[in-house]
TrEMBL record:
It comes from Actinacidiphila rubida. InterPro entries: Thioredoxin, Thioredoxin-like_sf, Thioredoxin_CS, Thioredoxin_domain. It comes from the Bacteria. This is Thioredoxin. NCBIfam families: thioredoxin (TIGR01068). GO terms for molecular function: protein-disulfide reductase activity. Belongs to the thioredoxin family. Keywords: Disulfide bond, Electron transport, Redox-active center, Transport. Residues 48-161 form the Thioredoxin domain. One of its GO terms (cellular component) is cytoplasm. Pfam families: Thioredoxin.
Length: 175
């Protein structure tokens, strides 16, 4: 039973190749294997060992938002936050839990508005945190200000089912 021995895992945290834009290390909740998840990729990240979907949590700025958020093939939860914002520090872990629970269904992209003035202007950010849900680059939901974790979870669930409901309407026709 040694067919899975590949010796690739040792290279996971060296990251000196520099081929990808940026990658972060994610431990698979299903099997415990450490995986490198790139900031931008086709489809959704899966565990190299057991193929379970991995939570996709990344950061973007003015320069790479298009590639990382708008070109994603799954819905994107955008967290527009600032380092000086106290409520943001409570909201961010709640959003990370949402991204973990909805692994394979949503991508979480964090944007520091002080480093990304272009995005702050574009999304007309008046207060932080401002949360957006984008589907193929189109804004389908928006929420401003902090909210309890369960309220955030419910908001994301409703936004996801609403954006998918419209896409499914064509297939539910009786013949
Ligand atoms: Zn796994």
């Amino acid at each position: 039973m040694s067919t899975s021995h590949e010796g690739r895992a040792d290279r996971a945290d060296r990251g000196t190749d520099g081929a990808e834009t940026s990658a972060r290390t994610v431990t698979c909740a299903n099997c415990g294997r450490t995986n490198r998840v790139p900031a931008a990729a086709q489809g959704t990240p899966r565990c190299g060992n057991c193929r379970a979907p991995l939570p996709w949590i990344t950061e973007a700025g003015d320069a790479d938002f298009r590639e990382i958020a708008e070109q994603a093939t799954l819905p994107v939860l955008v967290d527009l936050w600032a380092t000086w914002c106290g409520p943001c520090r409570m909201v961010s872990p709640a959003l990370e839990h949402v991204a973990e629970r909805l692994a394979g269904r949503i991508k979480l992209v964090k944007v520091d508005i002080d480093k990304s003035p272009g995005l702050a202007r574009r999304f007309e950010v008046q207060a932080v945190p401002t949360l957006l849900i984008l589907d193929q680059g189109r804004q389908v939901a928006r929420q401003t200000g902090a909210a309890p974790a369960n309220a955030l979870r419910q908001w994301v669930d409703e936004a996801l089912s609403a954006s998918h409901g419209s896409a499914d309407s064509a297939s539910g026709r009786p013949s």
